[in-house]
Amino acid sequence: MAQKEVKQRIGSVKNVQKITRAMEMVAAARLRRSEQRIVALRPYASAIRRMTRQAAEAAENLPNIPVLEEREEVKTVGILLFTGDRGLAGAFNSQILRAGVRAAVEHEAEGRQVVFFATGRRGVSSLAFRKRDAAASWTGFTDRPAYADARDIAGAVVTAYEDGKIDRLEVFYNAYISPLTQEVTREVLLPLQQATVPEAEEIREDIESKEGSGHSALTEYEPEPGDILARLVPAYVEISIFRGLLESTASEHGARMTAMRNASENASDLIKDLTLQLNRERQAEITQEIMEVVAGAESLV
Q: Which parts of the chain are beta strand (E)?
């Protein structure tokens, strides 16, 4: 490779490095805000989940709410995927898609039909590429989701359950642990009797219940537990989806920040290698010129 080409490549790599460093800084700033939102929401979401479960256990007769009706046979499973609108975030999007498609294959092998729902352009386009078009999709807000977005999604999936289009709803999202770690999480959201709890949250609730075992109190409901449950159920579904959105957003920013940092470090290594190659070629060219001068001088003697 000629020196001119090496210089051009070094310049190109430096330009890319400037972009990756800028994207890392932007992702880091957005991650801090996302972390604050998810840390503030987690206790509230856990409390709503716990109150809903306790009210359901205390109610003698469950209210006539469609999402509380368990189907005798699960024929169709809805799969809701939380992905991002953009890429350049490592395996953030791909691991959710792989997990969702893998679950769909498992359900289909057991004779069930699968209906996909997706948030984020990456998930929608990837499903279309795999010939698995989403029945409903939501895009344009994954960088900063609002509660209204969760309400729209909840309305669509609850309607699909009430209309009998799905008999169970599973959600897949990246749970945020740290900028370096995001855990693919699979939960059953509908029907509520089969709803699963994230392992970390379940452990935390067990610890809290053990710590408070010596101070148990009788809970009195006013109005009746069934009436309270009727009010809690819509909030439970919306909060669960909103939490998944916030977890996914924080995970996306963390994954992008990490990916861009790795890209910047790889660019630095590449620049060092190219600079070393350029110096070697310069030295070889100088050596060749010296040899030619010496040869010319010897021929004149």
A: 76-82, 113-119, 136-138, 168-178, 181-190
What domains can you pick out in the chain, each with its CATH number?
A: 25-208+219-257 (3.40.1380.10)
CA distances from 296 to 171, 284, 287, 290, 293 (A): 78, 18, 14, 10, 5
Return the axis-axis angle of helices 225-300 and 92-109, rounded to nearest 10°: 130
d(CA 238, CA 187) in angstroms, rounded, equals 14
Q: Indicate whether this model's pTM tops 0.85.
A: no
Q: Which long-range contacts (CB under 8 A, 24 or more apart) does 149-157 make?
A: 149/242, 149/245, 150/238, 150/239, 150/241, 150/242, 150/245, 151/238, 153/80, 153/117, 153/119, 153/241, 154/234, 154/237, 154/238, 154/241, 156/117, 157/78, 157/80, 157/117, 157/189, 157/190, 157/237, 157/241
Which residue shows structure tokens 């306790």? 54
Angle between helices 3-58 and 199-211 (to 10 degrees): 40
Cα 300 vs. chain centroid, distance in angstroms? 75
Task: Give the pLDDT confidence of 51-109 residue by residue, as tens digits.
Answer: 887 777 776 666 677 777 778 888 999 999 999 998 888 889 999 999 999 999 999 99
Measuring CA to CA, which residue among 142, 119, 146 is closest to residue 242?
146
Residue 55: burial class (beta carbons within 10 Å; 0-12, 13-18, 19+)? buried
Query: Cis peptide leading into 225, omega within 30 of 0?
Result: no
Could you give the CA distance from residue 19 to residue 9 in angstroms, rounded to a whole number?
16
